[in-house]
Amino acid sequence: MRITHYVQEVSIKGATLLMIAMSASGAAITYNTNDPGTGFGGTGLTLNSTMGVAATLTFVPNANGDTGVPSNLNYGTFTLRCPSCSTQALGVGSFFDSFIFNLIITDVTDGATGRFAGLSSGGAVYSNVSQITLNWVPLELGPGTNSASSGTFGSTVFQITPVTRIVAPNSASLGKTTVQGEIFGTTDFPITAEVPEPATIMLSAFGLLALGLVRHR
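Now predict its structure.
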């Protein structure tokens, strides 16, 4: 009798774990960074150098990306170009003044917008050197109205890496630097307890259910 009761209890727990696993994948979110406010402080998506040979820093936004939650994100790509730059050793380069880059996040699914501001002191650029770094504030948009410019992010949270270091024009990525971040829901990472991975939950659930079926037979 005790064994039967135990197996029934285990089967119920297995079914509960299975339901948790099936819901652990989260929702899908549509977002973009091509809002008209995205750019170099109101001067558009291209910034020109201020000294030396001509160089440009251009941003290509992410238009209507669909992603699961939680997930890593690519908010867009900076491209640094300096066709006439030489290596630093030869001394022909360019220079950018300090600037602010506004990265507008539009959460299409939840109906909210927010801004990450990239602060840069500028710096020198050669074909093999880039001193340009962007430091982002704030580091998190959401949940709810936290750092929201309009609407509410609901349970969705957008994060951005604290620093983006622009690579040199002749780098392996040909001067392209992606802006990285993360998206998650407030229920994805509880503070008080560590949540097992969905795959682990699934295996445990199926194991417990199988035990229940064996006992039933």
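Helices lie at 2-23, 198-216.
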